[in-house]
Amino acid sequence: MYDFIIIGAGIIGSAIARGLSSYQAKVLCLEKENDVANVQTLANSAIIHAGHNPKPGSLKAMLSVKGNKMYEDWEKTLEIPLLYTGAYVVAHNDTEEIKLQEILQTTKANQVPEFELIDGDDARKVEKNLAKSITKVLSLPTTKVTYPWEVAFACMENAIENGVEFHKNQEVIDIKPINGHYQITTKSHRIYQTRHIINAAGVAADDIGQMIETPPFKTTPRKGEYFVLDKSVKGFMKHVIYPLPSDKGKGVLITPQYHGNILLGPSSEFIDDKFHTNTTAQGLDYVKKNAVDLAENIPFDLIIRSFAGIRSTSTYDDFYIKESLNHPGFYYLGGIESPGLTAAPAIAEYLIKDIIGMDKKYARNQAFSPYRKKRVEFHRLSSSEKEALLKADKRYGRIICKCEKITEKEIIDSIQGPLGSHTIKGLKKRVRAGAGLCQGGYCEEKLVHLISDTLNISPLDIHYDDEQSLIFTHETKVTK
Fold this sequence. Notes:
By secondary structure, the protein is of the alpha+beta class. It is 30% helix and 22% strand.
């Protein structure tokens, strides 16, 4: 019998798992995918927003401003990547400048700690590629950019090290309330018993709720498509650049990334399939047409890939973070769209302390450690640090991913870590092997061999991502 089962291991579920691990409670996190952070957390703009956009007085407003600040603590304790970019919200004419003034008032009402309205010409002294048509800019210095799935990995790794269990490939298909607790059945025919359920299933949160009651909200998937520019464009834009928001969301953005790339996007389209993340010519064309309103000289010739992500837009006009009215111990986290990534640390704290009331129900875990050891990024080290590591292990001297300069030892550590991966995509998410200009064209075959040798499994059993994505189906050249 578990005290808590969390359904969903995106950034929200992982942050909650870490928070619960600081108490003396038996906690399990179930994930339907083959890895942590494989749906909404995987494909988004990676921005830690300042808190300028949500409706004043809403949970979104309160938790995004608080969450933004909490990331600075996570940077120290969990060793997560943060890029302190700041952001510009831009206006092109008198009409848009009036709307920008309204956003400034919202920013002030939400108690964002720093902001400033500046002229377009002054902004272009800092950002030379900013579109010449831009007349005014709302500057938001507390905006940051992170690496979302690494944040989720850090939270879940720390949670596991503090006693939380994590089971992947466990899609929940049935929930039954039984004598004061819940029985959960998964697609793989495993049955779990728990006193409490935390529904952090993202875009599927209403589907999970439907298993026991009519959920208090409906989730509609909204797809956003993006371009990724090669990291050789680093410095083209230093700030996150926002257009004025609309009913479609924050709009097409230009977003510098922690590892040097730049994202262009997203588009915004309501769709029927909650997990359909194909890109379209129409969606990507929309991104290009809108991006040029923000900047001159965008190097579209340096696009290295495109992708699409899903956002869980809810019929409830805010984050829905509440206990079920009909089933005690069943907790909803619904409509966690933007600024969900920003608010994640504060969402976890709010649920655990204010909604569940853990401090009144469970003793603290005296062995809890909030610290996670930072993974080695060999190419970022000084010459003396590299030399010391090479003396200790020669595998640091073998570069597997030339684009991202990832060594054999880093890859093996990511295979064997507390949240180790045995998939090609899993290694790409953990150490960026295959994330560069050639998109795995050079290193993917080497990754297959490293997984095979490290785990002593056949290359025929290695997947790109989920359990249906085998790299090889059979041998074609066999000596008998």
